[in-house]
């Protein structure tokens, strides 16, 4: 991993469309501003990881359960 | 270089995939849905089939079957079936990577997790599956809405709506 030291107000440019700015530093917390083309999704990593985990769990749903569900919610 | 030079068309080859839930299914290439970025956790799977229950068209459930791996399939639910005002906030420019945005050109689903105890089932409202039915391109987008949960309990919602129906 490339490590760069930046001060408050300083930026990093990635390619020609992405700029990351250190907005504020307070103890352990860093506030970061990101400018990027809108088609590039930006997410907090922990949210992305949670969604990965949830998707893996979803593929374990079994067909018997869904059959049970369908019975339960059948329109009469 | 000729701009009107057409890309060589991929031959339509009859293909089948062995699936965990549906046995061997035939793949109609025209119905293949392409996830360019894959699905988080399954980034290497790009092609899926949307399978709906033909016998029960009122069912809110569908399946998203990976064509690269027969064992990988997701249960999807129509989120509007239990939350009619569901409105995930997704950046328009990002959505446009699937193609033009037109009235009725999109299908929105939520991935469902169904544990042994079905009353504990949840739907992922935070990251809906969005399919552009005109281009057959799709993505799992993460919406900005703080109120939508990755694990939204849906069993109670269903009971409510069933009760409502019964009361009508």
Topology of this protein?
The complex is a heterodimer of chains A (76) and B (168).
Chain A: E1 11-14, E2 18-26, E3 29-35, H1 45-58, H2 63-72
Antiparallel strand pairs in A: 1-2, 2-3
Chain B: E1 15-19, E2 23-27, E3 33-35, E4 47-52, E5 61-66, E6 73-77, H1 92-95, E7 106-113, E8 122-123, E9 129-132, E10 137-140, E11 152-153, H2 155-167
Parallel strand pairs in B: 3-10
Antiparallel strand pairs in B: 1-2, 3-4, 4-5, 5-6, 6-7, 7-8, 7-9, 8-11, 9-10
What does this structure look like?
The complex is a heterodimer of chains A (76) and B (168). Chain A has 76 residues and is of the alpha+beta class. Chain A has helices spanning 45-58, 63-72, and strands at residues 11-14, 18-26, 29-35. In chain A, strands 1-2-3 form a 3-stranded antiparallel sheet, with no helix packed on it. The mean pLDDT of chain A is 88. Chain B is mainly beta and 168 residues long. Helix content of chain B is 10%, strand content 30%. Chain B has a 7-stranded mixed barrel with strand order 3-4-5-6-7-9-10. Chain B has a two-stranded antiparallel sheet with strand order 1-2. In chain B, strand 1 (15-19) and strand 2 (23-27) form a beta hairpin. Chain B starts with 14 loop residues before the first strand and ends with a helix.
Structural class of chain A: alpha+beta
As residue ranges, the low-confidence spans of chain B are: none
Q: Strand-and-helix sequence of chain A, N→C? A: EEEHH
Proportion of strand residues of chain B: 25-35%
Tally of helical segments of chain B: 2
Structural class of the secondary structure composition of chain B? mainly beta
Q: Major β-sheet of chain A, in short?
A: 3 strands, antiparallel
């Amino acid at each position: 991993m490339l490590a760069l030291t930046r001060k408050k107000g300083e930026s990093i440019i990635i390619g020609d469309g992405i700029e990351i700015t250190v907005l504020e530093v307070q103890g352990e917390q860093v506030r970061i501003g990101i400018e990027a083309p809108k088609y590039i999704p930006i997410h907090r990593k922990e949210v992305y990881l949670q969604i990965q985990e949830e998707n893996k769990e979803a593929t374990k749903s079994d067909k018997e359960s869904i059959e049970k569900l369908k019975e339960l919610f059948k329109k009469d | 270089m000729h701009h009107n030079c057409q890309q060589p068309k991929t031959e339509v080859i009859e293909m089948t995939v062995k699936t965990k839930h549906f046995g061997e299914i035939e793949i109609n290439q025209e119905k293949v849905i392409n996830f360019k970025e894959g699905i988080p956790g399954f980034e290497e799977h790009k092609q899926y089939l949307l399978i709906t229950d033909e016998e029960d068209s009122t069912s809110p459930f569908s399946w998203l079957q990976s064509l690269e791996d027969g064992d990988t399939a997701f249960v999807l639910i129509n989120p509007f079936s239990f939350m009619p005002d569901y409105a995930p906030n997704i950046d328009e420019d990002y959505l446009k990577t699937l193609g033009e945005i037109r009235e009725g050109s999109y299908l929105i689903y939520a991935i469902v997790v169904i544990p042994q105890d079905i009353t504990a089932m949840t739907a992922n409202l935070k990251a809906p599956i969005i399919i552009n039915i005109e281009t057959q391109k799709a993505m799992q987008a993460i919406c900005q809405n703080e109120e939508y949960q990755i694990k939204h309990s849906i069993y109670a919602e269903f009971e409510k709506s069933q009760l409502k129906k019964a009361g009508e």
